[in-house]
Amino acid sequence: MKTKEQTNTWKHVEKVRGAMTLWLCLLIGSAEVKSAEIIFLGPPGSGKGTQSNLLSQKLKIPQISTGDLLRERAQAGDLEIAKVLEKGGTISEGKLETILTERLSSPDAKQGWILDGCPRTLAHVRILNRVLTALGRSENVDAVISLEVPDSVVHRRLAKRQICSRCGKIYNQDSLAPKTKGVCDLCHNPLYHRSDDLNHDVVINRLNHFKNETSLVLDFYQRSGRLCRVSGVGPKPEVFGKILKCQGIKISKPKEQK
Question: Is residue 21 part of a domain?
Answer without folding.
Answer: no
